[in-house]
Records
---
Amino acid sequence: MTAKEMSSATDLFIEEARAVSIAEAAERLGVAGLKPAGTGESVGPCPACGGTDRFGINTGKNAWNCRGSAEGGGRDAISLAAHLGGQDVKRRDGFLAACADVLGRPVPDGEPETDAARAEREAKLARVRAEWAAKAARQQREAGDFRERERAKARGKWRAGADLASTAGTAARRYLALRLGGHDLPALPCLRALGAEPYWHGDDEAGRSVAIHEGPAMVAPFVDPDGVVIGCHLTWIDLAAPKGRPVLRQGDEALPTKKMRGSKKGGLIPLVGFVLNGDRIVPEPGRTRMAIGEGIENTLAVGIAEGFRRDTLYAAAGDLGNLAGPADPKSGFAHPTLTRPDVNGKERVLRVQGPVPKPGQDPGDAVQAPDQVDEVLLIADGDSEPFATGAAMLRAKARLETDGRVVAIAWPPAGADFADLLTRHSEAA
């Protein structure tokens, strides 16, 4: 085979790999253990770096992401294969090896390619591209429909909840008192309570969802920048258990006692300083400062500590990813101590997403500050991995800082959050 023929065969090989969808590649690469997370997305442990829910694929967007990856994620099967196989796509041999993993066959060698074989390959590639384009369009429509259905369900669940001031809200009020050292709280009109909320996890032999627990739950809305409820955050309550939340397990697996439904990205959980305005939840005029952290309890603890300032909106982001937003892949760095095994069992340095926001990101990629806000206090958790959390908080700071707006970060002592500190202080008093 001449150099020109070899180049043509390799180019076709690469183009064929590029036409493979994330869903097809994930199946071919043996990605398993992912669970549906709404809007065409599935999440679970990363096959390359572990964790429990740091990895996800979105078939509607043809994208993957991993919070343990410096790159953060990608929008093609080749980058997914490179992440799972530890390949460096900046090197030609690494890029071709990733293409080979996607297609499940080796890179073309020196065997000559006949005109007939070339024509067949090109025709096959054209068919694959056309099929993928049609499939992607269909999945995008289905994902949009699914997203709207999930948002409607989440909205309905929040609306069905009882006000915390009512008798039905007693368990939620006592839960917050337990987590916040018994301190008085202002009215929390955006938080609601459900008396007997099922906790769904896994399927039975017939493929039907199974409720492994049922009990009282606190439900909070996620609202977009226009104040529309797009999702809800659920916290199951067991006042006899540690921190007031039930211990949920399936086999050896510890399950989270908090879940989210509908959409959360780009939305925030309004706590104090927001008002109900018809079907929308909007900031009170005159509140030009915002205090926001990952969790509800941590933000309320800071509010208690500073006396719930009248100029401040208190809100939660739901999780660190929504607070920080995606990172610029170029800002990733090697963790100073942690490593992880690759698919071949070789220990590799763990890459951490960096402190620089991804350029050109969409406002819906992470929580936004209302236009009236000119000062933001970011509330950090001290009980999370410090290097990744530190980079994420710096990323949030850089993302939310604009002309005329200042952003600061509040850090609790290592190994604690502000709600823990408040409880300890109350117990010691």
---
Amino acid sequence: MDGITFKIYNSIGALPSLWDTVAQSNVFLQTPYLSVLERSAPVNMECFYIGIFENSELIGVSLAQYLDLNKLESFGERDKCFKTLLRNFIFKNFASHSLFIGNNMITGQNGYVFSKEIDFECISEILLQSAYEIIQYFIEKGEKIHLVSLKDFYEDCSIELKKYRLKEIYEFSTQPNMIFYLNENWSSFDDYLAVLSKKYRDQYKRANKKFNGITIKNLSHQEVLVHENTIYELYFYVAKNAPFNTFFLSKNHFSTLKEQCGNRFQIFGYFLNKKLVGFHTLLLNDTTLETYFLGYNETIQKENMLYLNMLYNMTAFGIENGFERIIFGRTALEIKSSVGASPVNMSGFIFHTNKLINRFMGPIFKKLEPTLLWQQRHPFK
């Protein structure tokens, strides 16, 4: 840590002028996206922006998010089993004030980026010290942080990080991140279809046939504003029926994102008889295509295989625009594998500020994490 310091900022306006230069490889750490969080974050979220300096030179940037789970009416309404109810009770009473070092709104290693090579011992120190400084910030406000999570590291990074300070903290892994590594020889969606096995070509044909009558439109900022209420209703239906949520987006999130990020944020509307019945969103992140939030009318989704068609459309966009991979995230693992995505394990580190509870973090976490059974599909010849 010789010569390495950090500073935590509460607003985008206070960030150093070279912030975006350092963050140029990751859209989720650049000021247009961070401005979206500042202007339209979930009501229970507060963001902190961490600048990392070598002497006086900015060499790294990071993000932290505080979540007050007491402000949520629901953690998700899909699963009603005893384990889920117990998990919700524990979160509400023993982990309602949570701090995430990283971005809790997306899947992937988007918590920090550096403009030069930094050793993992230094990174682990910076992440932990940042967490402790934010904990102290809330203590001075009369609030207590219960749970701290350093989230989403690929295996090569987590192996290195836990050689140092993070070895003292419980490492956890939940559902894998579904990533579609696109074949560099594909230049069109037809190239992709040509290498599918008969079973999965037939799946595509069924989905495409069911899609009949639905039109897709890449929405402008003005069109997002026109359809804002419907977009939010479709999003909220999907979000509240997820197995677990720690936040819900604000109603102006998508319009703010389109305004701030322009063509780097794509939102596609699905229309049936001129009525918006679904949408999906994408963020263009260097050579990676990041899938973001989506929403749909459940009746249309079932009758028209809307979700599967969205996955095919995301795949087509990625291929036709020369992306190397598509990050599909942690939900709906089986259907995502049926279009070509593969599971990639990611881990995080988590601790409770109550030392007694923290001693049993491992057994507690394992008891509360729902068992997930799924079968990976292999769609290619």
---
Amino acid sequence: MSPNALIPSHRKPRRPSASSRALRAGVTGGFLTLAVTGATVPANAAEKPVSETQEMPTITTALATSAARSADTAEQVAFNYERQALQDSAFSHAAKAAEKHKAEAVKKAKAEAKKKAEEARKAKEAAEARASRSSERSTLSAPSSSTATGNTATLVSFLKAQLGKAYVLGSSGPSSYDCSGLTQAAFSQIGIDLPRVSQDQSTQGTQVGLDNLQVGDILYWGSAGSAYHVGVYIGDGKFIGAQNSSTGIVERPLDYDMPTGAVRVL
């Protein structure tokens, strides 16, 4: 043995083994152990970082898919809002149109109701006027009434006083008459106002049959409301009337020219 063998400073340093280097490297490098160990690290341990880096594209694709879905959802929401706005606008226009039509219908109905009410009022007034005249005539024509007898006597007396006078169309006396002018003048003697023309005189009072005539009834020729000639019944099957320009005012039997109908105003 060499005399220097026991002196530590003269000992040859021992070369560390590969495993000891790996261990020191591990202690020194911390998380870099896999890179330093080199061939001593198992193969599957070296591939692990690669698999971890390959997960990134999968995460990116998922994010892209999620973003696309969010965009589709936003587009659908916008479409729904637009469709709802169009529906609301259409409903609003329809409601306004319906309200306008309703207002027009109400206005038209009110106008029609007003018109009918006015027509009813006029009809009522006309009926009341006829009823009043009828009541007056009933009073005048009562068999026991001396007034009625006096009226018919005055009427017939006036008509006979006009016999022989001329017939002049449109004349109402005192020297000449046409048919309706004579009847109007005769009834005015007893306080009864008749319309001027034959058509209107034929609708006055109450219609009576020719087999039930009384003195003072107005005879008419033609239909009621469109009569073309009138005269006055004076009893005994006779009448007085302004016939025409050739005969003037005459007294004739009914069968001389049978009338169409008669009205009673007394």
